[in-house]
Amino acid sequence: MPQKNGYDLNISEEEVRKKLTKNENPKNICKNIKKGQNFISLYESSLSTIDGIVKYDCGEGPKVFHSKEFNPRNKEEILDKQLIDSFILSYTEKDCLKRGTKLSEDDYQTCWCEIINLFYGEDNSRMCIPFKTSTFRESLTKFMYKFKKENAKIEFKCTCTNNKSKSIKGRFNTMTDLVKVE
Questions:
Q1: CA dist 110 to 37, 129, 130, Å?
Q2: Range scoring the smallest mean pLDDT among 9-13, 71-75, 145-149, 171-175
Q3: Cβ atoms within 10 Å of 70's Cβ, excluding its own
């Protein structure tokens, strides 16, 4: 039986799924669910599972939440779902920026951001991050000081879109303390 790093390479996909879910440490999701069930917390948790299902029991008996069956009930839940989807489900710049043009709120944007390690260029990472448009500069400044506190030598660059298809760029550099939004 071929093995690599202690794992059997001849097991089926279903066996892999069982092993992964069996070895997961169950999250205590109940502390994240506010009174009256906060479905957005359940939705966010379900996106990190293999099958999009969260099983929980917060004292009212076992319940199951399916991400595919989640339908936001109000404007806040709709926006929260859009922002969570952009952060967790956007793997490309094109998808990220497209999600920004479909946001339901005017004061939000999705940004395709790149962290450029100024000493090790090959360690760059890219991700989709939602930001509030009106506080974008302040958010970048907070990020910069967080990275500076960790002694990171990086440049952080973002290209953003909002529901008016307006393109906004933002950046900071921890070595020069430059924060710029244009």
A1: 27, 6, 4
A2: 9-13
A3: 16
Angle at the Cα of 54 from the Cα atoms of 31 and 108, rounded to 5 degrees: 70
- CA angle 104/108/113 to nearest 5° reads 125
100: helix, coil or strand?
helix
| Per-residue pLDDT tens digits for 89-130 | 999 999 999 999 999 999 999 999 999 998 876 668 999 999
Residue-averaged pLDDT of the chain: 84
- What is the 8-class DSSP label of residue 102? T
For the record, the structure tokens of 89 come out as: 């489900």
Which residues make Cβ contacts (< 8 Å) with residue 143, sequence separation at least 6? 156, 172
Which residues have a Cβ under 8 Å from the Cβ of 68 and sit 6 or more positions away?
52
Q: Does residue 75 carry a pLDDT above 70?
A: yes
The CA-atom distances, in angstroms, between 99 and each of 129, 139, 159, 164 are: 11, 20, 13, 12
The whole-number pLDDT of residue 121 equals 61
